[in-house]
Amino acid sequence: MPSRKPRGPRRTTRDAPRPNPSGVHFLASNQIIDGLIRSCAPAPADLVIEFGSGNGAITAPLTRTGARVIAVERDPAFARKLRTRLDDKENLRVVTTDARTFPLPRKDFLVVASIPYSISTSLLRRLLNPGGGTPRKAGLIVEWGFAKRLTTAVPRTAELAWWAARFDITLVRKVPAHCFRPIPSVDSAQLFIERKPQLSKGEGRTLRAMIEAAYLSPRHGVRNVVTAATGTRSPRLVLAAGLTPGTRADTVKPAQWARLAHLLTAHGEPQRSGDCSPACSRQARKR
Ligand SMILES: C[S@@+](CC[C@H](N)C(=O)[O-])C[C@H]1O[C@@H](n2cnc3c(N)ncnc32)[C@H](O)[C@@H]1O
């Protein structure tokens, strides 16, 4: 992990936060951009998607890795300028569309992006929920508070726990506001996300059912959560997962739920309900 303080461009009094009606803040630190790209180590065989390419601060160095790059930008003026500027890059495709509806590839891909903060949650939902394709690795610049919520040891909501149980989500570094132009009022963070080995369908269903039961009844012990989710009692497997039957649900880390789901599935414990009851879904959506 880098220890040097990220350098932004030299700061002057003219750089103080100013009204910015477009709400767009461009990365202006080569050190941050390089670190972001290096975190995913794109190679020529890779497909990399960048959401919100703006004026290409990340796109241009991304194309130099030799990977195939798809830059997704909603603003037609930004997209047009980027196409013109990087006209000679045969490995780049600029797509003018909304990141929230861009169809994600089914095959292997990476994401490298400084994402528009207004769509952080909806974009992460698309990237980290099964359904479409999910990235093998993602290097993202996100708002600082959002990064902290995503990386707490015991996430606050069932949805965050579901993501953290299936992906390693690491807060790599703070990205101070002065690394952007214009300077925003909040700091940002560099996140690194890596997909864990994929779960079987049964493991996924058991994991989801347990997480939802846990977040509906956070004071319950793990034993009750397992019973609510699978209809069985498995104290031996709870112990094997490094928990005790009485461990409170709101102290259990996502990786521990994942381990327990693996053990329960391997020993043939079915989940009780389908993927998710309506009440659980409502709770999971609360953010
Ligand atoms: C934070 S800026 C990042 C720009 C550039 N990547 C950089 O780091 O300098 C976000 C960019 O996302 C674009 N954008 C905003 N909402 C979007 C959406 N829903 N889909 C795709 N692009 C979007 C904006 O036009 C802007 O160019």
From TrEMBL:
Which Gene Ontology cellular-component terms appear in the entry?
Answer: cytosol
This protein's UniProt keywords: Methyltransferase, RNA-binding, S-adenosyl-L-methionine, Transferase
Q: Does the keyword RNA-binding apply?
A: yes
Query: Could you give a GO molecular-function term held by this entry?
Result: rRNA (adenine-N6,N6-)-dimethyltransferase activity
Q: Where does S-adenosyl-L-methionine bind?
A: 25, 27, 52, 73, 98, 114
Entries under Pfam families matching the protein: RrnaAD
Q: Which domain of life is it from?
A: Bacteria
InterPro entries per record: KsgA/Erm, rRNA_Ade_diMease-like_C, rRNA_Ade_Mease_Trfase_CS, rRNA_Ade_methylase_Trfase_N, SAM-dependent_MTases_sf
Residue ranges of the region described as Disordered:
1-24, 268-287
Family matches, as PANTHER family: DIMETHYLADENOSINE TRANSFERASE (PTHR11727), DIMETHYLADENOSINE TRANSFERASE-RELATED (PTHR11727:SF7)
Report what the protein is called: 23S rRNA (Adenine-N6)-dimethyltransferase
Organism encoding this protein: Prauserella marina
